[in-house]
Amino acid sequence: MLPLFILYPFHIKIGGMKTLIIAEKPSVGRELARVLGCKKSSKSHIEGDKYIVTWAMGHLVELADPGAHDPKFKQWNAEDLPIIPERMKHRVIGRTSRQFSMIKSLMHRKEVNNLIIATDAGREGELVARWVMRLGGYKGPFQRLWISSQTDKAIREGFAALKNGRDYDNLMRAAECRAEADWLIGLNVTRALSCTYDTRLSAGRVQTPSLAMIQDRDEQIRNFKPKPYQLLEADFGGFSASWRGKSGGRIFSGKASAELTSKLENTEAEVVNISEKKQSVPPPLAYDLTALQQDANRALGYSAKQTLKILQGLYERHKIVTYPRTDSRHLTADIEPTIKDRLKALYATDWRVRAEEIQKSSLKPGKRLFDDSRVSDHHAIIPTEETVKPERLSAEEKALWNMIVKRFLAVLSPPHCYVKRSAELRAEGESFFVSSSRVTDEGWRNIEFIAVENGENERSGSGKIDNLKKGQKYKIESTRLQQKQTTPPGHHTEASLLALMEKNNLGTPATRADIIEKLLSNRYMERSGSALKLTPAGEEVLLLVPEQLKSAELTAEWEKRLSRIAEGKEKAGVFSSDIRKNTGELVAAVKSGGKDYKPVEFSKKPCPLCGRMMMPTKDRRGRELYVCRSLSCGYEEEPENRGGYRKPSPKERAVTRKLIKQYSDDSSDTFTLADMINMKTPGKK
Ligand SMILES: [Zn+2]
Fold it and tell me: Which of 51, 229, 302, 323 is catalytic?
C-alpha cells in the first residue's frame, strides 16, 4: 500500500474543485441535490462531483443578546438603557450550532472554491446565508440562485442563469437594518417598560402598532351607539322603487318619514330617467400571500400562519405552486409563454374542462396580469407546470390549492358582463330609484363566484322594469317603511388585520403571520371564534408604551425606507443612525412616562415570594405554569404531573431566581420567561 501523502495530490486532481450550495433548509437542499445529481449523502450535506449541497435551518446566526455586548447587560437595569451597541455582535444559535459548524468546515474545504446562495429568494433568505458566510469566515466568490418555483425545470433554469452574488448586497443591507431595528427597539422598549413598571411587558416595532389596530377597532365597537333609521319603498304595481333624498335613502327622523309618507299618498309618479348600461367587470387579481391568507381565513377558517405552512408544503414538497412569500399580484412577461404548460398540468384534476376551455380561448389578459413593473422579488402565487396528483394532497392542502387554481383560471378568463337598467321616477318632487340587471356573460364568475356591484349587494327597488319608458306615469299604490339601525363595524379577524397591516406597510408578507401568533401567545389579544380581541394585558401594555410606538404611520415609514435600501436608493448608515436616535427617544419616553397604573391580575393565586398575583402561561413545550409578573421577583411554579402545583424547595427557589436574573440571555431552550417576553426577531419558520 502506498503511503497516503503520495495519494493525496492525485485525489485533488481527480476530484477537481467544488461549489458549495447553501439551501434554506434540509428538504430544499435534498431537492437541489437530486436535480444536480449529487448522491453522497450525509447528515449535514449531500455531495456530488461538482457540487456540495448543504442547508441552513432558517436562521443559524442571530444578533447576539445584550449580554454578549457587555456582561452587565445580562441584568435588566433601567440605568443601562438604551442599549445601543456601536457594532452589533452576532452569535450562532445554540440549538442548530452543529449544522453551522458543518457548513463552516465545508466552506473551508480545500477543494471548495465557489459558493452559491440558494436560500429563499427574499430579504430574510439573503440574510440567512450572508450571516452564515460572515461568521463562517467565507471570503471566496459567490453567486445567487434566484427562483420562484421548486420544480426541476425551475431549478435547472435557475442554475443555468445564476446571478452575481454581489447584486444582492443592498437586499442584505436592508435585511440587516430590519434585524437591527427590531432588536434595538424591541429589546430597549421591552426592558424600559419592564424595569419602569417592575412588570414583564413586551413591545416591538411591528407588534405594538398592530396591537393598537385591534384596540382601535374594539374601541369603535364599544363606543358605537346604534341609530335607528327607516327606508322608504313605493309600490307601483308591477315593481317597487326606493326613495332617495340628497344624502341617501336613510331617514333618521320619524317625523320626516311620516311627513313623506302622507305627502306621497295617492299620488302619481313619472318616469323621468331611464338608462341601460353595459357593465364589464374584470377578473380579480392573482393571489399574493396576504390576499390568499385573507381569503383562506374567510373561506376555510385557516389562520395566517396555517395558510403559510400549508402553502409552503404545496411549494416545496408537491412543487405545484410558485413561491409563497410574495407581495405581488401580477406576473412578469416571461411567464406568459409558460401558461400553456401550467394549464396542461391541471388536466389530471377536476379542473380539466375549465383549463381546456382557457387553453382554446384566444384571450389576452394583458397588463392587468402581466406587468413587470409591479413585480419586485417574486410574481403572484400561481400553479407550476408540475403535473398535479390530487390524491397525494391532504384535505387541507387540496382546499388551499383549489383556491389558488380557481383564482389562476379566473384571472385568465373573460370579464363578467351584464346590462344594468335603471329608472328614476318622481312624485311631488321626491325621487325613486329602481334597477335590474341581466347577465350577458358570466365570464370568470363561472369559475370563482364573487359578488359584484350589480344590484346583488345593494337593494334598489325590485320587480320587472323592462317595459318602463320615459314619460310614463305610475300610481303609487302603497308605501312601506322598513325599520333599520346602523350597525357597528365587526371585530378584526386575521383576514382584516392582515389587510390593514398590509395597507399600513407593517411587517412583510413573510412575517405578518408570526406577529399575529406572537401577540396571541403573549396574551395581548385572544381569538374568539374568528374575531381577534384585545385582552386586559394588551390594554395594559398599550397604556404604558410611548404613543409614538403605536403609530402605524411611523412604522410604515421605516418599512418604506427599508425597501429603498433594498433598491439602493438609501444608505443603510443613515437608517441605522436614525433608528438608534429613535430608540433613545422611545426609551426616554417610557422612563419619563411614569404612568400611575394598577397591573392587571390574571389570577387569584398570589406569588409566594412577593405576594403579587401570578399569571398562568405556557412554556415552549406547551406545559402550563404560573409565573410572577414582577420583574424583580421572577418566581415561577411548574405544575406537577398529577395536576396540582408543586412548591419548590428554598434551594430551587434560589436557583430559579438566579436563572431569572439572567433570562435576557435565553441560551437555554427550556427557558420559559424569555418566551413570554420574547422580543427576538420572529423566526422565519
Ligand atoms: Zn413574585
Answer: 323
